[in-house]
Structures are given as C-alpha cells and as structure tokens.
Amino acid sequence: MLNENGYVEMFTNMMSEGFIVIDSQGTIQVYNNKAKDIFGISHNQQISHEAGQIKNGDIVIIGDNAIGKDDGNLNSSSLKYIGIDDENIKKGDAIIAIGVYNVEGIKPVYLYQKSKDMTDTLKMETSFLGIDIGVVIDFINKIITIEVDKQKYTMTYINYIGHMVILDGKTNKMKFYQSQGYTAKGESINEILKGKEYRAKGENSELLNVIGKNIFEIHKSGSTIKEFYEVAKGKNISYVDEFKEINGFPTMCTLLPVNSQKRRIGAALKVEDISEIKRVLRERDEALSNLEKIEKRLDEEREIIEAFPNIIGESKEMNYVKKLALKAAKTNSTVLIQGESGTGKNLLAKAIHENGPKKDNPFIHVNCGAIPESLLESELFGYEKGAFTGASSSGKKGFFELANGGTIFLDEIGEISSNLQVKLLQVLQDKSFYKVGGQKKIEVDLRIIAATNKNLEEEMIEGRFREDLYYRINVFPIWIPSLRERKEDIYPLVENILPKVCEKVGCENKRISAEALNLLLRYDWPGNVRELENILERAANLSEGNTILSKNLTIKVADENKYLDEEILPLREATRNFEKKIIKKVLEYYKGDKKKSMKALDISKTTFYEKIKRYNINI
C-alpha cells in the first residue's frame, strides 16, 4: 500500500520516534527501527539459545509480579502445567514458582504474595532437583532476577512483567529465557506453557519481521491498539502527544488517520519512549553530586542559617529540609514541595528563589486552588485581545510570561484539571506556550517550583494526575514535616511569632508561661504552624497581663490515657509512622552506624536507604 519502494523504510528509520503504519485491514505496512527498539523487537540478547518449544519434563522457573497482568493472562489453571494446584492464588498476586512441566509426582516449590500485602521484595533460594536456583522480585527497583547455577537472567519493568526461564529436563541446560518484547513476539509465560514455539536468541538469531503481520499479532488487544485499528477502519479519532501504555510500556503517542482521495486507507501511530524521564532523573542526580562537592568547601551550618533566617526550627527534620532547600536553590531544577496545609510551603518556595541565581528577577506566586478552573488557563498563559467574551481589548500577559527570567510558584498544583495538566506539561518540556486565542509561540526562561498538600502518587494511581507530569515536576522533591513530627521546634517558633503577634494586635510584648508552653507541646497541631500563629494571636488578645497562661490558649489536649476516635489512623499511615519511629531510634542507639542499624532491623541495604529517603530521616 504505502511502501512501494525502499524510500519509506529508509526515511522512517531516520526518525527519533517510533513510527507504525497499518492499512485498513490492520496489516502492518511500516514499523521503523525506533518502534522495534521501544517494544523490544530488535532487542539483542547476549546469551544465546535455539528456537524451540517446551517439552514434558522441562524445569520451569517463574517470577511474576502480578499474575494475569502482563504474562499472557496467566492463571491458576495454567500453573497446573507445573504441578501447582492452589485455589488461593488469584489474579494480581505476585508469585515465584519452580516446577516440572507435565510430570506428576514431582512436587513444585512456590511462594506467593497477595497484592494487598506487598512488601519490598519477594525472594526464594532453593536447590531443586540438584540445581541451585534463586529468584528475587524487587518491587522497589522494579527488577526480577532469576539465577540458575550463578547465571543471572534479569528483567526490569515499569508496571507489570512475567519472567520465566526453562531448563532442559534431560541436560538441565537453559533452553529458554524471557526477554524484553515478549508480548510482541508472542512469548508470554502463558503462551509458552500452552505450547507456543519460541524464537532463538543471540547475535546471529533472526529478528522478528513484523511487516505484513496483523497489528494484533504484535500488540495484542490493548485500548490504544484497538483505537489505532478503528481509525484505520474509518473512525474519526486523532490526538497529539497523549500518554498511553502499549505492551506495558509508557509512551507518548500521536495518532493520525491516513487518507487518499478522501478515502480512509489506514492510520499512523507515532510513539515516543518516555525514557526522557530517566534522563531528567539522571540530570537531577548529577546536579546533586556536583552540589555535594560544593558543600564540602563551605561552612554548611552557617550558610543555611544565613540563607533561611525566616525558616524557624532546629529539629533534625527541619535542618534536613533546609539542607535540601539550599541544594535546590543552587540549581535550576524543578522543585516539588509537599506537606500538610500550614507547614510553610509558601515561605520555603520564596526562600529557595531568594537564594538562587534568579533572585533578582520576579517571583510569581500562583494559588492554583484559589482561581476558578474557567479562568486558570488565561491567568497562567495570558490571552490575546478578543480571545473570549469579556476579554480585555488589549489582551493580557499571563503569570508564566510575567515570571520570565525568574521563578513561578505553582501552589496547590494538585488542584489543576486534567485538561490544563496537558498544557502545563508542554510548558515544562519546551519552556514555551501559546496565549489563549494566540498563534505566536512565547518562549520563557524560568524555574518552576510546585507545591501541594495532596499525595500526588495516590492521585496518579486514581487517574486524577498525569503520570508524565508528576515525573516532570518531581525532579527535586522536598517534604516538609508536620509540626507534630517536630515538636522541639515549638519553643523557637513561639519565640519568633509572639513578638510579631503582639505588635500586630497593638499590645506590649508578652511572654508565655511554662504551663502554657507544656500545653502547646502536648497538642497535635492539625493546622501546623499557621494554627500556632492563630492560637498565639488569640491568646495575646485574651491575656490580661504580660504573661500568656494556659487558660488563654483555646486548644483542647486529648487525655493521653483515653482512647479517642481522632487517634485512629489508616493502617498504612500508622505503619509508616511506626517504621519511621523505630528506624530513628535504632540509628540513635547505634550513633548513626548504618551497617549495625541494618543488621539490627534485619533489612537489606536497598530497603534501608529507600525508607531513609521516604521518611526524610537525617543520617
């Protein structure tokens, strides 16, 4: 149809994005090299094996992080091929399994984990029929490793993956191992267990030729591929740069119909691998590495005090926040500040700007949650004259344009609608945008700081926040702890806030009694520092003398000996709080000795450092 000579293949193989064209019957006409790279079709394996098929008596080793998700719809019935008959194993469970194919009397070895009970890793080390076998599913780093007699077969994944190694039942030699692109090759666990022949691997093995095959042979029946096929058949769907998942790979897709003489003859799909996110993360790591070298030449404590005089608190948690903020200030990387309402995210964002290379340029604070959704786009990007009813006759500059050369602070970014998230992503990628009703591209040079009191990872899982946008703004994350997690900061906060409050209400400077201070220390502070400011202002107005007493504080402290409904926490949050407390206590006991702490806690190095990072524990 479209490829009558070699020019189309030559030109499409020069593209930096994947490019696929199908005709109106769904037959693949163009499938360039980049598309083959993205979906693992041209993956060149270093370990070789011949083409073949699973046979009775072969030893099968499986590592699957979610049964039925990206393994050819593996289920409990399929597991019976290797002797596993367990009705407790359900879809979505992770499993490690070793068994013999279609041979009765040899007991399989397996363990599984329910999807709701996932831990950091699932491991098995065993000797099966005299063969040393180890399997590790690392849920944190998203790696599955199968090791057979010290030979490792490793696969990384993004969401789900089904990994498998098959050993010849007579020689115990490897005859098949799973590799990237198995969906396109039709070599998922379930397909292999049901007798599907597999292709050879190695430098001299023949690459899979997809031209002339039906698109569903290569990409099964995902929603994006179904759309692709429907457009080729005549449906009017098209989009540009939308986040889609194909064969388990997160991609940015552009879908366009292909017409000839007003007749639909096919469709084209441009696919961009979101490995760009990995590049951004690498840039962040390089920036942090360079900053650590700078830190060694400076008196860090003095520098932090000078840089953040208005960020009050000397607790370990706040010192760590200020240390991160100083690092962030010295880069132009996008910063994401997270924390509960009232913890001081606005103050920290302004301080980062004032200590950065753009400090003499504008700092534009945008509260995304306070601006109606219908106005937010025009406020952010501006509009041309006559762009909409009620628009100013002279047009208007948006916040991004006003912040050019400086910093734009997107407060409560979790409130932005999904439609606006797409446009914001484009600005983050290209540092350019169009005004509402405009046709001229406006380029800006600015740094972006975002803040939210929402858990964006949960928002992303629920589909309310784009995954690609999350990775774009989460280049340099800073978590501000709640006031109840750093109560040792209450006294310096009171010392700093109280004189300002007295001046504001027009009274003489007041001090706080020891009894009142003790009451403040026993309170849980759901409103954090902002609530503390309000409580002190109210107390300054209520107190008759120069001393604020406990009776002047309008707060209620729960009886510590009484169990209250307010103390009930979700199990996940309670577990996190307990983990953090235990890790901090163990580190203090061993005076910061990480090796002894890991041994005492009986956790791996990877898990230890992941939890240190997650809970912002300063070591």
TrEMBL record:
Domain Sigma-54 factor interaction: 311-541
Example GO BP: regulation of DNA-templated transcription
Keywords, in A-Z order: ATP-binding, Coiled coil, DNA-binding, Nucleotide-binding, Transcription, Transcription regulation
PROSITE patterns, alphabetized: SIGMA54_INTERACT_1, SIGMA54_INTERACT_2, SIGMA54_INTERACT_3, SIGMA54_INTERACT_4
Single annotated GO MF: ATP binding
A Pfam family recorded for this sequence: Sigma54_activat
InterPro entries referenced in this protein's UniProt entry, alphabetically: AAA+_ATPase, AAA_lid_NorR, Homeodomain-like_sf, HTH_Fis, P-loop_NTPase, PAS-like_dom_sf, Sigma_54_int, Sigma_54_int_dom_ATP-bd_1
Coiled-coil parts of chain: 277-304
Transmembrane stretches, start-end: none
Name by which UniProt lists this protein: Sigma 54-interacting transcriptional regulator
